[in-house]
Structures are given as C-alpha cells and as structure tokens.
Amino acid sequence: MYIFIVIYMHTVxxxxxxxxxxxxEVEIEKCKGCVICIDTCPPNVxxxxxxxxxxxxxxxxxxxxxxxGCANCAVVCPDGVITVYKKKAKKMVEVK
Amino acid sequence: MSFETKKFxxxxxxxxxMVYTKTNLMNDKPLSYCPGCGHGTAHRLIMExxxxxxxxxxxxxxxxxxxxxxxxxxxxTDVQQAAHGRAPAxxxxxxxxxxxxxxxxxxxxxxxxxxxxxxxxxxxxxGENIVIIFVNNGIYGMTGGQMAPTxxxxxxxxTSPFGRDQKEAGYPLKITELIAQLPGTxxxxxxxxxxxxxxxxxxxxxxxxxxxxxxxxxxxxxxxxSNCNSGWKMTPVDSNKWMEDNMFPxxxxxxxxxxxxx
Amino acid sequence: MxxxxxLAEAAILAGCDGYFGYPITPQSEVxxxxxxxxxxxxxxxxVLQAESETASINMVYGGAGAGKRVMTSSSSPGISLMxxxxxxxxxxxxxxxxxxxxxxxxxLGTIQPAQSDYFQxxxxxxxxxxxxxxxxxxxxxxxxxxxxxxxxxxxxxRTPVLILSDGAIGQMxxxxxxxxxxxxxxxxxxxKNTPWATVGRTKDRKNNIITSLxxxxxxxxxxxxxxxxxxxxxxENEVRYEEIQCxxxxxILVAYGTSARVCQKSIELAREEGIKLGLIRPISLFPYPxxxxxxxxxxxxxxxxxxxxxxxxxxxxxxxxxGKVKVEHYGxxxxxxxxxxxxxxxxxxxxx
Lengths: 96, 262, 352
Fold this sequence. Notes:
The structure holds three protein chains of three kinds.
Chain A: H1 2-16, E1 18-26, E2 46-52, E3 58-62, H2 72-76, E4 82-91
Antiparallel strand pairs in A: 1-4, 2-3
Chain B: E1 18-20, H1 38-53, E2 59-63, H2 71-74, E3 78-81, H3 87-97, E4 102-108, H4 109-115, H5 117-126, E5 131-136, H6 166-169, H7 175-180, E6 185-192, H8 196-212, E7 219-225, H9 229-232, H10 236-250, E8 254-257
Chain C: H1 3-13, E1 18-21, H2 28-37, H3 39-42, E2 46-49, H4 53-65, E3 70-74, H5 76-92, E4 96-102, H6 118-122, E5 133-135, H7 140-157, E6 160-166, H8 167-171, H9 187-193, E7 209-210, H10 217-237, E8 241-244, E9 251-254, H11 257-272, E10 277-282, E11 284-286, H12 290-294, E12 302-306, H13 313-321, E13 326-330, H14 340-350
Parallel strand pairs in C: 1-2, 1-3, 3-4, 4-6, 5-6, 9-10, 9-12, 12-13
Antiparallel strand pairs in C: 5-11, 8-10
Helix pairs in contact in C: 1-2, 1-7, 4-5, 11-14
C-alpha cells in the first residue's frame, strides 16, 4: 500500500510539474577562465573547456543536459559573457 | 558575437526566451580587469540599474584612480575621471548644480579611504544626494599590490612583505562604519559579488541606493567587498574562499544603516 | 567696494553657476560676500564652502565637466593645493575661473600682498606641459570686469583662466561700475553650448567622457600637440596690455597689478626730474605681451621690471628683449610694497 502511494505521488508529480529548459550562449573570446561560475550551477551542467580561446584561456561551456536557465553563472560572471535562455516545456503527462 | 559550444537545447535560444544578457550600457570593450575580479560584476550591476530605472539621460558617474580608472571605457553613462580620492568632491558639485540628476562615484579603497578620506567624510557629512560605490579589496591593485588602509592585520602585500603590523601601520580602517555614524549618510550597506546570491543582493542594494538619492536625505553608500586575486596571489576561486574566510569576519556583510521606514 | 567684494558681485552678475571655496586671508571676503548676498535667491547660483582648497578645485572640475560656469578663489598657499586640480583641468580641457589673491610666501608666508606667484601661474604650477590664461587686474574695476571676460575666454578655449590679483587690490576700496546681469545657462543651452559636457547621455549620442588620461603614448602626444596649438592660438589672439607714456620714453617700466599703480606715480616723479619714463602694464600674463615690449627695444636705454617678488616676470621681459638692451628687476618681498621714489632711484642707479 505504501509503495503504491509513493509510485502514485511520483507520477502525479511528473504529470503536474512543468519542466524548465535552459540554455546558455558564451562569448568565448571574452571568457577569462576565472572558473567562478562553475560552482554556482545548481544542476552542475557547466565546466571549463579542454581547448583555449584566442587569449589562451579555457572558457566555460555547457557540458551536460539539464540547464534550468537560472542565470546564476551569468550574474556572477565578472565579464558578463553569458547569455541565458529559458523556456517552460509542455506539461509532462507521461506515466513512468 | 556569441558562440554555442555544445548543442544542448540550443533551439530554445531565441530572443523571446532570453532571460539574461549583459546590459547594453556596458560597452563591448573587453574588460581590462584581471580574471575573476569583482570590478566587472560591480560595474555591470550599476549599469543594469541605470538601464532598468531608465535614467541614462540623467546619470553621471565619476571614475576614480586605481584599477577602475578605466571604468569610463566600459560604462555607458556620461563619466568624469577624477583625480585620486577626489571623486566625492566632483560628485558634490555636479549634484548641487544639477539637483535632479543621479550622480554616483565608483571608488577603491585607496581612493576612498586613504588619499580621499577628507573628501569622503565631508561629502558624507554634508549629506550630498549621491551614491558612493566603494569597492574594498584590501589592497592597491593597479599600482602592483601595495598595502591599503583596509588591508587586514598580518596580510602580506608588496609594502607589507612580512604582513601588516598594527604597531607600524595601524589597524584596518573601517571607513564604512565611520561614515555611517554621520547624520548625512542615509543608507549604508556592505555587500559582495562573488556568488550568485550575493550578486542579486548587491543589485538590490544598488537599486535602493539610486532610488534613495531622490529622497534628498543624504548619501547612499554601498561597499562591495571584493577579491583581488592578482594582489593576493591566488586563483580567482581561491581568492573568493579566502575573502569569505578572512575579509568577511572583519568586514561583515549586511545593512549598516537603513533609512527610517517611510 | 572692496576688490574681493567686486569680484564676488561680478561673479553673480556674470551668470556664474557655482562658487566652491575655502577661507584664506586675504580673500575670504569673496565667499563671505557670496554667502551673505544669497545668490541662490537672485540667480540660483550655488555657493558651497568646501573642506579644503583641494576639494574646492575638484568641485570646480566636476562642475566644469558638466558644462557649468564655476569658479573658486584662494590665496597663494591654497593655490598651491589646487595645482593638481588645475593640471587635471588643463589636461581635460575644462573651463573655469580661479582667482589668486596673492600673499607673501613661500610657505605660510604672510598675509600682506606679493607678486611671487608669477611662475606658478604662468609657467604651469602643476605637472605637465600646459598653460592657463592669466589676467592681472590692477584696480577694483578690473577685478569686476575680468570675471565675465574670464568666463568667456574659458569657454571659448576650454581652459582654466586665472585672475592673478594681490592682497592690496583685494582689500582696497574703490568706486566700481558693475556690469549687467547675464543669465545663467539652462540645461538645454548647456547641452548646445558645451556638447562635450557630462550632463547625462541622450539617445542621440555616445557617452561623454571627461578625462585627462590616455595610456597610449601616441594618443597622448597628439593630445599634447593639440593643447600646444591651442596655446599658440591664445597667444596670437588674446594678448592684453596697456601702454602709458611710452611714445617718448627712454626707460620703460614693466609691471602689473599693484606694482603698476606704484609705477604710475613713479612716472610722474621721474618726469618731474626730467627722466622720460614710461610703463607697459601687461594685463594678460599668459599670453605675455612680448611684442609690445619688443617694439621699444630700439628706443629705450633699458627696461625695469617692477614686481613684488625676487624677480619672476623679469625673465619674460628678458626673453622678449632678447639681449638688445638692459633689463633689470626691482622688487620687494615678504609682503612689502615698493615705493615710487625707490623705483626712480633704482632707474638712476642701474639703467641710466
């Protein structure tokens, strides 16, 4: 009975909660590789690139799916190189 | 120009979905500040505030001498570059001559609390209707990392290579607490810009500061405790941690003086 | 009126927007007069006592950068404190009026009049290659007249203008005819007349920046060349002086301010003795009336520069004369004023 309730609540949650999709664009040449943004990302989807920009800095970039468009990285960036997009996806009605 | 680096949800990158981008009132010039330095963030928050309040036509900024002497290269408002420490004097005159305009100074710790101490105290004492933004990183960045009045005890700088010794150099000067005691200051607060939470708080503080100058009741003073990873000889991330551990206990964040409830 | 008071009243009448100053003898009456006469009720002019001369000149910088007609006044030790601000204003090309009511120096000196700030005023007392237009009144009437002229020159050339007076003229009482009231500029007029000023950025333009900094040496050199061309233009167009009885002179005195007044008496005394004495009274010290002096180098036996100093303006006289005839200096220091008789004696001893 208890397990049934848990499963039911989980599916209700999926049915009701709107999912937010986020995306960022980075002015790579202006990123100075300070790394301050990385720890501000709640879903941990950003990291420093392997390669370098023209100034010799590693630059920040999305490394995984799951950006929620919270703009934490953008507001903390001293050079203001990040533009943030956010969109509410359709309500999920799938049942897992 | 923006570049996408990895293709995650890039189809939502449309103008309608944009929720944050650097304000147009910050020029396109790449900032000359060191990687991770709080100056860039502080500049941007002021420009965002001017844009959101739609007061560009009535705003005049005063840039200091110090790392941010080139603030006028990056900020989109009309700006005057002041001699070292004198910004509050310039702001006083402009504010008196144009009482309806928004006038702000942007100063570092040497500018405001060393050479400019008299100008700072007297502008605050007279209660000028200006905003003073005080970026305190406990060191003289531009000239190569010398000791500042706000350098912490024991902190090593190029002119205190063995650590600041109170017997020789005195204690750090808590200029913000000093001027908060003057009746001419209306709103005094201390903030930081090293985490997203703090950036948003600082933005609110700066917005309040500009709005309060319209009450014509005195100075709005916003101190921004910032890192100086170059002067402190650390990485940007380490410098922010060091700042939390060492600067904040000495310069605690929060409102020091609030206007009376309207 | 007193010279200092005439200066103050003339400022109000000239449509001055703001006075920022600090008390110092012998010119505190300027600010006292302004405070008492409440020009904010007459024209809206701002009068503010600053915490120091350093703050005063920087308030003037701020106001000037925003297109306003602003001024300050002080005396020698205070003017020394202002040199940083004056250099900055020259570099940033800002218009303003500064009045120096000179007293004896160096250091704290004395409160009596002197003329020992000539070098500081005319040769650039602050750092860098710059000049400021310098006008020397020698009467209370000129103290009043030069205010409007100074503001006009300041805005015409975008330069600080210095009225170099002294404690005697500041304190003496004479009749004066005051000019008409000029209106202060409105904000629209300021935006039109000084489009470079930081009044607040409108949508039709980029932001205005007032600065004297340029870290690119090429650009800084070009800027300095531009300043030098400006000073050349000023030298060609703004020389002012007065000639008194020079047409038949065998000796010509060169003096300004209080010394010039004393020299006029000397001319009387000398001519009674049969010495044909004349006077060239520079009114603009920068630009210096060198051509006026050069006109007479073939005619006279010599020039005597009379200045209440150890000999500052005499160097400019020597430059103008270029070795053609004798040039001597006579002056008193420490606040002493030369007497007309002594001047005649010196002429007899050293030139004739």
